[in-house]
Structure formats: structure tokens, C-alpha cells
Design brief:
heterodimer, A: 331 residues, ABC transporter involved in vitamin B12 uptake, BtuC, two-stranded antiparallel sheet, 13 helices, 2 strands, B: 496 residues, alpha/beta, Rossmann fold, 2 domains, six-stranded mixed beta sheet, ABC_transp_permease (chain A), transmembrane transporter activity (chain A), transport (chain A), sugar transport (chain A)
Chain lengths: 331, 496
């Protein structure tokens, strides 16, 4: 009896999250025939592509035992910067992409400096950064969204447009697969390989698993923690650029909600296949789950403001499974 | 007048017995010393008395009545209080002295939910005065000195109308004068009819202070005697035990060049240490808990900052700012706190064994998994790690096997100096002799070994040379042939 019970729990733990995703998809498919169509599936994947970028970043910070709250604000910042590079300054591809990327790398370095060097607890360090970056992006954009032909301060209209190549990043398709979806697959694949098969990936996990033991094993833990914060900021920054490309404007404060969804996706990812630790593949599944729920609820015409209730419940369930199992493991 | 009795107390931790049928008695108005080497079971016994652990078997009686102690609250209600060695674990640093003294009462009183500050300050200063302490009651506790904190704990115990107070190594952080004050306070408490259990490694103070002595060894009570009817020598021989005969497979190794030379290393608890280790030599550094052994090991490993002094490795001056520097230079450490510092409990045996040699197992940044698994397999066999497979989480292994993994991760590195800090702590007998054998093998490969231990018989069995550490200094150098456990204990407890 005891063994079958714990055996069942093992199954729940290992395949529970994936089963929930499948069940939810089945449910929505039964409720709405349009749900399980190629168009809608790619729609879901496109809608989660940006969150996935941000969530992969968060996953990196979680892997080293940290937490990056500033990712949402970085999304907002790079969205505005990349749009403004074209609309305000008529810059080409290189500047449009490199400036926001450099900005996010810089923020990552400052995060690392505060958390690793000054040793502010990372929640607090990145919380401060969240405020600062939010302030910077609204100051920079003067609180306005950035779009072609927008009125400028001096009364003229903005000289530039959002270039077609840029929009292609967010809206284009290759062989009828949306470009952002391809980019997301690529990101998940590369980071998964990096974390699972390379020395640096292993070191990141060891650093997060037991910081002191890692340090005493001769791992340069400060360097790896820095790397994690820089990558976290970088992926958030890339997410922001993709967001501008998808929407076609530089929406102000567009990243605010990304943080919560990204954190939720990463933590749901803990429970995927019983990993019990942050992992990119799990994070992707977590993001899919969130995307499927949102899409399905929209189709069912559920009120928008109720979505968070469902998201919260799903997160609580996934965390319950993860932590219940982790505790049992320690006994 | 109250009497406290513990009868036939047994306690095991995951099958390893820590206490085997211990009897202990404490009378009112008595100072009763509880002695024993590290790991003898003193702390476990006291934790059962204070409700931190629950005994597997046995009974506790107070005044000829059996009582039940399951939680710290139970113990406090029965008038059992403890002044812990780690004072900081029992105090709330950002509250005032007064609040800390009256903490228990504040917690327990349910009737009033408002704090009566004037009364709080008045009462607490009255208590402090009763003992002649002069600490401002409004002072915040984290601004107090170590000895003040201890006085606060004593005052807190007194305010609870404690009938029994346990002092766990109370003099360790105190100066001579503060120690004298503490003894006066203990005398006062004793006069008031409080029964006192006194735990200390410092034998002279035991003989000055205590009425009776109970000695424990290997989880058993060896003897209870009045202080007047025994001697320091007799106590030492009871603590160490004469019957302990362990097999140390010592192989004679020709010594080579000096590997490590340390001159006047200083930092925190380490107050100027000189030492040297030669190739193939096993140097044991012995000392009691708190002598500064772990601190010295961490200094030599770059884990803590060296304030002054020089470290030379194979004749070259080295600066070790991080453990990575040490590892790169060829110094490795198997730390004392295995689970916290030595291994990754949530990772597999394979990942643990490759953590320090991953660069050599990688090509173009990618881990060569086959090579990694092969090396882990070789190590598991060589070390005799008992594990189901390489994927097993290290947290699930026994203490001895965890320690083998903690040692094993260093074997593939090209280290010249191996340091072991209490490597047999919490390790069963079988694994112990495996670890001794392993260390012997390393010496045969002309590695230098520094072996930090508070187990004197280990040092006698394994070392080529023994350095005794006391209060941050090396106070004596002995060859195992010249030394005895008694002699080591003598120097380690401050004898000259």
C-alpha cells in the first residue's frame, strides 16, 4: 500500500505538470473546435515567445540561487529604446539592435555588482534596479509610447518609421512558422544545451546548489553569479526588442506584467519531469501552460481580470508538487 | 529541594546510537560537571533535557515524579533553562536588553497584549542588579559584548525561576575577569538552591567549581564521582578510555622536499602560526573545539583572508585570495562541515566527483560525458563508495560515503597538499578505516597532508608529526612515539 501510494506520488511529481498541460489543451479543444488548429497553436506560441525569453533569463538567475526582479523593467526599456532608435534617430539595424542589447548588459552588470560584490540580497538589489530602470525608460520616452509619425517635443513629427526588417522579427514567418516562435525554439534549444552539456552550465548549477561548497571546490562563484545576472538581463533585453517588433511600436511600461509571468513559468518549470530545480525546458513548458490558459480563457470569453486567479492557482499547484516532493526527498 | 533524574536515556540518529542507556542525576544546590570528549553524547543528552530532541527510550524524573519533555516549552515550564554556548542563537539582536531578559514571559503571557515599557525596564534592571550586572536595559542586544550577552541569558534563566540551569561551555568567550564574575554568579545561584549542570573542556575550572563530575564516552555514562575524590589525570583517562584500539594502517614513507611552509599566519582566531609539511608527510594538528584549527585550515585554503604572515608552496610565495587560487596552486581542503561545505547533496555522485576537475574533462567547453562517467566509476571503486549508481543523489548516501565523495572530488586534481578538517566526524568505523587508508595512499604518492582533528588517538595513529593548537597558536610539537593522549590533552587544554 505504502509503496503504491508513493509510487503514484512519484508519477504525479514527474509527469503531473505535463499532464496538466495536455489536459488543459484537451479541455479547451473540446470546448472550442477552433482551439486545436494550426493557426491557434502558432498564435499561442507567438504570444508566449517574449515571456519565454524573459523566463529563460529568470531561470538563469534562479539556477545560481538568485532572483532577478528587474527583468520586466528591462523589457520595457529595450522596447522603447529599439523603437526610438528607428523612429527618432532613423538608425539602421546595427544601432537599433546593439544599443538596447548594450543597455541590458550594463543593467545585468550593475545587478551583479550590487548582489555579488556589495552583497545586497539579490531580491532587494534587483528590486532597486527595477525602480531605477522603470524610471529611466519613462524618463527617456517622456511617458509616451513611441510610434511612427508621433509628435515630437518641438512640434514636428518623428522622422523615422519602424523598418520592415524589424517588424519581420516579430511578425514574419518562415515556411509558415512565425519568426518569434523559431527564435524561441532556438533560444530554448541553445540554452538547454549550454546548461546541460557544457562545463559552464554545470558550474552554474553547482554554484546555486551549494554556494559555499562550490566556492570551497575552487569554482569562481562570483564570476558565475555575475554571468547569470548578465544573461538574465540580456534575455530580458532581447525579449523587449522582440516585443517592439511584434507590436510595431515602443509601448511604455509594456514589460511590467512580464515579470510575474516569467517567474511563474520558471517555477512551474521546476516540477516538469520532476527536475526539482530550475531548467530551461521546464520553463518553456511553464510558459506554454500560461499561454494555453490565457488563450483558452480568452476564447471562452472569461473576464480578463479573472485570468490572474487561474494563473495564481496553477502556480500554487505546481509549487505545491515541487516543494512537497523536495521535502519528502530530504527526509 | 528538587532533584532531577534522567534514567536509561537512549537516542539514535538514523540507526547510529548516540546515547545508550544513560543515567544522570542533578540535585538542588549542586554544580555538576558533565564531561566527555567531542562526540561523547553530552550535547545530545542536554538537548533531550531541554526538549530540543526527544529520547527514544528512558525517563526523566523531577522530585520523584516522572515528567514528559517533548518541546522546549515543556522544559521551561519544569524550570529547566539552558545558557547556550552560541549566545546569539538564543537572543533577538534588534530588541533591547530588557525585552530579551523578559522574553519568555512576554511570549507566554496571553492576558495582556500591550507592552508596559516602564515596568519592563524596571523589572529587568532589578533582576540585573540582583546579580550585580551593570548593563543598560535599554541597550540593543546586538551592541552588547559577548559576555554581556551571556549575562543576559543567565538573567533570563533566573527570571524564569529556574530550578535547573545548564551552562554549555560558558567560559569559552570570556576573559579571566569575566570568568571570575561568572563563577560568583554560579555560586549565588547555587546558594539559592538552583541545580547547575556545567559543561566545559577546561578541567582546572571544573575542579575549582563543581561538586560532582559525570563523565561520558561513546554515548555511555562512564562514571559519576565527587570532585574531591578524583584527580585531573583520572578524569582524562576516563574521558579518553583505555580500551580504544583502532587499526591504523600506517606505512612508512620516505619524506621529500617541503611542500608547505607557513610563517606567522594571523587572522581572527589564528594568532601567529608557523608550520611546515614535507612531501609524503602527515602532519596532524590537534586541539579542542575552538582552538582555531578550522580557521587555520580555511586561511591556508584562501577561504578566509590572511591578515599577516607568509605561505610558501614548494618554496614559492603564494597569495591565496580565493579557494580557487589555492586549488590552482595545488592546495585542497576537505572541510569539516561536510553537508554545508564539502558536497552538493542535491547533485548526483557523478556530478560531485567531477566538480573540481571539470576543466580536464571538457573539450571546447563541452563536458565529455563518457569520460566523466568513467572517471567517476573509477573513483567510486577506488574509494569504496557504497552507492546504487552514479546518478544517486549524494544527500541520500550515509555520512561515511558522503565523506568519501567529498575527498574523492580532489583526487583527480594535481594537488600537492591535502588538508583534512575532522574527516571522520560522523563517520562509521568501517568508513573511518577506509579514510585512513586513503590518506595513507596519498602520503605514499608524496603528497603533503595536514590533518586537523580533535580526536587525539587519531592523530597518534595516523600522523608522522603532531602539532598541538591552543587558543590560535601552536603550543607544542610532538612525535607520535613521544606522545600519549594524556599528554596531548594536557597541552590542548592549556597546560604548560
Amino acid at each position: 500500500m505504502e509503496t503504491t501510494r508513493s509510487g503514484f506520488l512519484q508519477l504525479v511529481y514527474k509527469y503531473g505538470t505535463v499532464a496538466v498541460v495536455v489536459l488543459v489543451i484537451l479541455l479547451f479543444s473540446l470546448l472550442n473546435p477552433y482551439f486545436f488548429t494550426y493557426d491557434n497553436i502558432t498564435d499561442i506560441l507567438r504570444s508566449i515567445s517574449i515571456v519565454t525569453f524573459v523566463a529563460v533569463g529568470v531561470t538563469f538567475s534562479l539556477i545560481v540561487g538568485g532572483f532577478d526582479l528587474s527583468v520586466g523593467s528591462i523589457v520595457s526599456l529595450t522596447t522603447v529604446i529599439s523603437a526610438s532608435m528607428m523612429v527618432w534617430y532613423q538608425q539602421g539595424a546595427a544601432v537599433t539592435l546593439l544599443v538596447p542589447i548594450a543597455a541590458s548588459l550594463l543593467i545585468g552588470l550593475i545587478n551583479a555588482f550590487l548582489a555579488v560584490k556589495i552583497r545586497i540580497p539579490d531580491l532587494l538589489a534587483t528590486l532597486s534596479m527595477l525602480y531605477i530602470v522603470n524610471g529611466i525608460h519613462t524618463t527617456y520616452s517622456k511617458g509616451y509610447s513611441i510610434y511612427p509619425n508621433m509628435p515630437m517635443e518641438d512640434g514636428s513629427t518623428a522622422p523615422g518609421v519602424i523598418e520592415p526588417w524589424f517588424l519581420w522579427l516579430g511578425q514574419g514567418e518562415i515556411l509558415s512558422v512565425p519568426v518569434p516562435v523559431l527564435l524561441t525554439f532556438l533560444l530554448v534549444l541553445i540554452t538547454h544545451i549550454y546548461l546541460t552539456y557544457t562545463k559552464q552550465g554545470r558550474m552554474l548549477y553547482m554554484t546555486g546548489g551549494n554556494l559555499e561548497a562550490a566556492r570551497l571546490s575552487g569554482i569562481p562563484v562570483d564570476r558565475y553569479r555575475t554571468l547569470a545576472y548578465v544573461l538574465s538581463a540580456l534575455f530580458a533585453g532581447l525579449g523587449g526588442i522582440l516585443l517592439a517588433a511584434r507590436v510595431g511600436t515602443g509601448q511604455v511600461n509594456s514589460g511590467g506584467s512580464m515579470l510575474m509571468d516569467a517567474v511563474a513559468a520558471s517555477f512551474v518549470g521546476f516540477s516538469v519531469f520532476g527536475a526539482g530545480k530550475p531548467n530551461v525546458f521546464g520553463t518553456f513548458i511553464g510558459a506554454i501552460l500560461i499561454g494555453v490558459l490565457l488563450n483558452g480563457m480568452t476564447m471562452l470569453n472569461l473576464p480578463y481580470y479573472a485570468y490572474d486567479i487561474i494563473k495564481g492557482i496553477v502556480l500554487a499547484l505546481a509549487l505545491a508538487v515541487t516543494y512537497y516532493q523536495l521535502r519528502a526527498r530530504k527526509k | 529541594m528538587s532533584t532531577l533524574q534522567m534514567k536509561g536515556i537512549c537516542k539514535s540518529f538514523s540507526g547510529v546510537p548516540a546515547l545508550q542507556g544513560v543515567n544522570f542525576e542533578l540535585k538542588a544546590g549542586e554544580v555538576h560537571a558533565l564531561l566527555g570528549a567531542n562526540g561523547a553524547g553530552k550535547s545530545t543528552l542536554m538537548k533531550i533535557l531541554t526538549g530540543a530532541y526527544t529520547a527514544d527510550e528512558g525517563e526523566i524524573w523531577i522530585d520523584e515524579q516522572p515528567v514528559v519533555i517533548r518541546t522546549p516549552q515543556d522544559a521551561k515550564k519544569l524550570g529547566i533553562q539552558c545558557v547556550y554556548q552560541e549566545v546569539d542563537t538564543a537572543l533577538i539582536p534588534y530588541l533591547s536588553v530588557a525585552e530579551n531578559i523578559l522574553l519568555d514571559r512576554q511570549v507566554q503571557t496571553r492576558a495582556k497584549s500591550l507592552v508596559n515599557w516602564p515596568r519592563l525596564y524596571a523589572e529587568s534592571s532589578e533582576i540585573l542588579q540582583r546579580f550585580g550586572f551593570s548593563i543598560p536595559v535599554k541597550k540593543q542586544v546586538d551592541e552588547c559584548t559577548l559576555s554581556e550577552k551571556q549575562l543576559i541569558l543567565i538573567a533570563r534563566a533566573a527570571v524564569q525561576n529556574a530550578k535547573f540551569i545548564i551552562f554549555d561551555e560558558p567560559t569559552a568567550p570570556l576573559s579571566t575577569r569575566e570568568t571570575e564574575r561568572l563563577f560568583q554568579i554560579i555560586a549565588q545561584l547555587k546558594q539559592a538552591g538552583v541545580g547547575i549542570i556545567y559543561i566545559s573542556h577546561r578541567l582546572p575550572e571544573i575542579f575549582a567549581l563543581c561538586d560532582r563530575i559525570t563523565i561520558m564516552r561513546d554515548g555511555q555514562k562512564i562514571v559519576t564521582t565527587t570532585t574531591a575524590s578524583t584527580t585531573i589525570d583520572e578524569v582524562i583517562s576516563h574521558m579518553l578510555g583505555k580500551t580504544f584500539a583502532e587499526e591504523f594502517p600506517k606505512v612508512a614513507v620516505p619524506l621529500g622536499e617541503p611542500v608547505l611552509e607557513v610563517t606567522q599566519a594571523k587572522s581572527g582566531k589564528v594568532r601567529g602560526v608557523d608550520l611546515s609539511v614535507r612531501q609524503g608527510e602527515i602532519v596532524a594538528i590537534v586541539g579542542l573545539v575552538g582552538a582555531g584549527k578550522t580557521e587555520l585550515a580555511r586561511l591556508l585554503f584562501g577561504a578566509d583572508r590572511l591578515e599577516a604572515g607568509e605561505i610558501r608552496l614548494a618554496g614559492q610565495n603564494v597569495r591565496l585570495r580565493t579557494p580557487k587560487d589555492a586549488v590552482d596552486a595545488g592546495i585542497v581542503l576537505v572541510p569539516e562541515e561536510r553537508r554545508k561545505e564539502g558536497i552538493f547533496v542535491e547533485e548526483s555522485v557523478k556530478n560531485n566527483l567531477s566538480v573540481s576537475a571539470l576543466a580536464a574533462l571538457s573539450a571546447l567547453g563541452f563536458i565529455r560525458r563518457g569520460l566523466e562517467a568513467a572517471q567517476a566509476q573509477t573513483l567510486v571503486q577506488k574509494l569504496g563508495v557504497k552507492t546504487a549508481n552514479l546518478g544517486q543523489l549524494v544527500g541520500h548516501l550515509s555520512g561515511g560515503n558522503q565523506q568519501k565523495v567529498a575527498i574523492g572530488k580532489w583526487l583527480p586534481t594535481q594537488a600537492r597538499l591535502f588538508m583534512f578538517d575532522e574527516p571522520t566526524k560522523g563517520v562509521d568505523i568501517g568508513a573511518k578505516s577506509d579514510i585512513y587508508r586513503l590518506i595513507g595512499n596519498l602520503a605514499q604518492q608524496q603528497k603533503g597532508i595536514l590533518y586537523f582533528t580533535c580526536e587525539f588517538q587519531e592523530a597518534l595513529g595516523i600522523a608522522d608529526r603532531i602539532l598541538v593548537m591552543y587558543e590560535g597558536r601552536i603550543v607544542k610539537e610532538l612525535l607520535p612515539e613521544q606522545a600519549t593522549q594524556e599528554l596531548l590533552m594536557f597541552y590542548a587544554s592549556g597546560g604548560e
